[in-house]
Amino acid sequence: MYSGSSDGESHDTPPQRKIPPASSMLWVRNLRRYIGSGAGLGSEALMELETKRILLEIFKEKQQKSQEAGTIPSFYKKKPEEGSISGRVQRLAKYRFLKKQSDLLLNSDDLAAMWNCLRENCVIDDATGAEKMNYEDFCHIASVCTEQIGPKCRRFFSPSNFMKFEKDEAGRIAILPFYLYVMRTVSLTQARIDMSELDEDSDGFLQSHEMESYILGLIPNLAQLRDMPEPFTQMYCRIASQKFFFFCDPHRRGKACIKKILLSNCLQELMELHQESEEEITDTEQAENWFSLTSAQRICDMFLALDKDCSGSLSKQELKEYADGTLTEIFIERVFDEHVRRGKSGSGNSREMDFDSFLDFVLALENKDTQEGLTYLFRCLDLQGRGFLTTADIHSLFRDVHQKWIEGGNYELCIEDVRDEIWDMVKPTDPLKITLDDLLGCKQGGTVASMLIDVRGFWAHDNRENLLQEEEEPPEEESQ
Question: Under a CB-based contact definition with an 8 Å cutoff, are residues 131 and 119 in contact?
């Protein structure tokens, strides 16, 4: 029935036929030549083929340039031209990315829902009355919030976030600090998105006009700025923007890093204007915040009062009237030497301080204890530009203070004694000179700078004990 034998004898299998490679087949070679020529292809295939050819040429060109350049890497990339396809693609990609990041943020309704979940699922500490939660409550609240708000809140309920907060003996954390952390994270992320949208060249830095646009967009949402007169808005944005650049652009390049802006105290100080105070705030308290309307108007009025000839800039003689004329002449001279640009004509009389330079001047004097303020002032104190102060420099600087001190009817003092006192306050690493690092390290650099440039600052140091006693007396009188 079957042709095969049943006795187990094997038959020789015929040898397998070897398949030639595809490249050797005639029809394959003809098809490749046909496709390679582009004949018979549709418009989309032709476009893809042309795109591939252009990209290959670009790659070969870059490869050739890198070989010619040797081992030096490329550190400069030309920005796309305005209206070019690459520029449009870059803006579109940036817009979509920022839109996606914005959609992942919690809005005000989401934050309110999270706060309700935290309060409904926490426990009350019997000792302090604070609302707290342990890790089990934390995980349960995370599940409830995810159901009500969505998965975008899940990232705040990670174990690492729970471990960031201070815990009591029972391992519980307070819900208020956690909620404030969530609010601050959302606020900073939203601020970064808003700033990135204004960053025209997408380099991670904001120029002055971009920073002013960001502040202008914030004004309607800041409760303490709602009553700002509309004509003053542009001037306010200029004044507010200058503080960001004073602290976040130390090299004066004309642009401030967005990351540095977000981490600076300036942004936190600006955001304080969101809060509506139930109690009446005095003008003095409002003036302490650079971004308050009272402070901005004070600075603007101060500049207008000093500008006697209404030229829009200040001469040395006009600036000497600042702070009732208590600043020394040598300090005013040094400010103009180090921080005021020369006029276009190049003559000495044309050098005057514009409004932006005046803002830096005021910021430095009002923030003498900060690194940025002290750096500004140290350049003025360093008479020889050597990076350090000697006893001769201290003597020259304090000589003008001493003269104003005597003219004010005060007691006679010895300049050498003041010089020795400054040396004892700073305790420099090198006993023969004082550097900027010495002033920053001694934590009294602002006081030392005030003693050398302002007779009122020296008076405050000389009467520091009496001033401290006066500050302590009012509470004692109230208690009696």
Answer: yes
Residues 159, 152: contact at Cβ < 8 Å? Answer: no
Structure tokens at 253: 């390049």
Tally the C-alpha atoms within 13 A of residue 153's C-alpha that lie toward its C-beta.
Answer: 29
pLDDT tens for each residue of 119-143: 999 999 888 888 999 999 999 999 9
Helix (H) or strand (E) holding 123: strand 123-124
Residue 238 vs residues 47, 232, 304, 339: alpha-carbon distances, Å: 50, 10, 15, 19
CB 419 within 8 A of CB 395: yes
Name the token pair of 248: 């976040």
Run of H or E including 124: strand 123-124
Encoding tokens for residue 263? 């981490």
For β-strands 131-133 and 123-124, DSSP reports them as antiparallel
Nearest one of 191, 209, 212, 200 to 258, comparing CA atoms = 191
Q: What are the structure tokens assigned to 94, written together?
A: 């940036």
Of the candidates 180, 198, 339, 177, the residue with the CA atom closest to the CA atom of residue 261: 198
Gyration radius of the chain over CA positions: 35
| Mean pLDDT for the chain overall | 85
pTM for the model stands at: 0.77
Provide the sign of the torsion angle of the four alpha carbons 301, 305, 309, 314, taken in this order: negative
For residue 131, list its beta bridge partners: 124
Which DSSP string corresponds to 275-332?
Answer: SPPSS---HHHHHTSTTSHHHHHHHHHHHHHH-TT-SSSB-HHHHTTGGGGTB-HHHH
Query: Given its phi and psi angles, is residue 15 left (phi above 0), alpha (psi -120 to 50 degrees) or beta?
Result: beta
